[in-house]
């Protein structure tokens, strides 16, 4: 299923615009775009929302016919248990996380112990935990950890854009992760020369215009055949003013949705 995530609303959620969108606003906008899946990913207010606010957001999502997924950072068992309780309110069947959090950088053996502890509750609840590929952990180490644990409820959230900062190639990451991928983050990316030719900026690009060989990902991972959701997000730099940035963010979302729908 094609979905939108909070990173597709990054600037519209931010305080750099005059009227930041609420989570419920993003739900309604998602449904208006004909999308039925939303991933609440690294959305700081999620864990500080009251029980009533959480229940209200979940009720709106249900009324709109939206499937919800959650996203967080870290593998500390207590934290993952808290997120799992939130997942239950939203009836979410997938939680995306990352091996490290600001307050926790476990070694691989420590992460394995934490994950084995946390996964007991996830397995019982029928919720999948998907760990994202990113530059702080080698892709081979992350996949090896998942293979070592061997749980049907643990896999990869595949984001090939992130691994470039580790001097890994997106194509190699896709191929290494394919068997254990459970979720995909969809965005294009490119390098651009800095002014004066003194380096490059690595950031987002409209889908289909950058360096991401998405057809290779689709062929290798086979997300549509395997029921793996594709979550749209962006690395959109600030465009100089709120109006232009918001308009560009919306345009990039429409472009990505059109690209994905044209390839199904």
Give me some keywords for this one:
264 residues; alpha/beta; two-stranded antiparallel sheet; 10 helices; 42% helix; globular; TIM barrel protein; carbohydrate metabolism; IolE/XylAMocC-like; Xyl_isomerase-like_TIM-brl
- What's the order of the H and E elements? EHHEHEHEHEHEHEEEHHEH
Q: What is the CATH class name?
A: Alpha Beta
Helical run tally: 10
Distance between the terminal alpha carbons, to the nearest Å? Answer: 10 Å
Which shape, going by the Cα principal axes?
A: globular
Overall mean pLDDT: 97
Name the assembly state.
Answer: single chain
Q: Could you describe the 3D structure shown?
A:
This protein starts with a strand and ends with a helix. It has one domain (2-262): Divalent-metal-dependent TIM barrel enzymes (TIM Barrel). It has helices at residues 10-13, 23-32, 51-64, 77-90, 108-125, 139-149, 170-177, 214-221, 223-226, 242-262; strands at 2-5, 37-41, 67-71, 94-97, 128-132, 154-158, 181-186, 188-193, 200-205, 229-232. A hairpin with a 6-residue loop joins strand 8 and strand 9. The radius of gyration is 18 Å and the shape is globular. The relative contact order is 0.14. It has 10 helices and 10 strands. It has 264 residues and is α/β, with parallel strands linked by helices. The strands form 2 sheets. An 8-stranded parallel β-barrel has the order 1-2-3-4-5-6-7-10, surrounded by 7 helices. The chain has a two-stranded antiparallel sheet with strand order 8-9. This is TIM barrel protein. InterPro entries: IolE/XylAMocC-like, Xyl_isomerase-like_sf, Xyl_isomerase-like_TIM-brl. Keywords: Carbohydrate metabolism.
């Amino acid at each position: 299923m094609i979905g939108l995530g909070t990173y597709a609303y990054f600037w519209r959620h931010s305080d750099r615009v005059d009227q930041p969108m609420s989570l419920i606003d993003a739900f309604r906008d998602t449904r208006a775009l004909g999308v039925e899946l939303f991933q609440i990913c690294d959305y700081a207010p999620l864990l500080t929302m009251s029980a009533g606010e959480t229940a209200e957001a979940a009720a709106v999502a249900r009324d709109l016919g939206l499937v919800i997924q959650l996203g967080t950072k870290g593998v500390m068992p207590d934290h993952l248990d808290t997120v799992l309780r939130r997942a239950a309110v939203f009836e979410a069947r997938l939680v995306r996380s990352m091996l490290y959090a600001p307050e926790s950088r476990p070694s691989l053996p420590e992460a394995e112990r934490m994950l084995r502890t946390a996964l007991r509750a996830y397995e019982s609840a029928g919720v999948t935990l998907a760990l994202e590929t990113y530059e702080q952990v080698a892709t081979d180490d992350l996949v090896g950890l998942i293979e070592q644990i061997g749980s049907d409820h643990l896999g990869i959230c595949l984001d090939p854009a992130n691994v470039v900062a580790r001097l890994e190639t997106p194509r190699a990451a896709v191929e290494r992760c394919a068997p254990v991928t459970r979720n995909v983050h969809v965005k294009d990316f490119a390098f651009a020369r800095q002014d004066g030719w003194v380096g490059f900026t690595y950031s987002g690009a409209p889908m289909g215009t950058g360096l991401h060989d998405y057809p290779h990902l689709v062929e290798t991972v086979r997300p549509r055949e395997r029921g793996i959701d594709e979550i749209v997000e962006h690395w959109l730099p600030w465009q100089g003013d709120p109006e232009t940035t918001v308009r560009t963010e919306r345009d990039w979302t429409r472009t990505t949705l059109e690209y994905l729908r044209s390839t199904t």
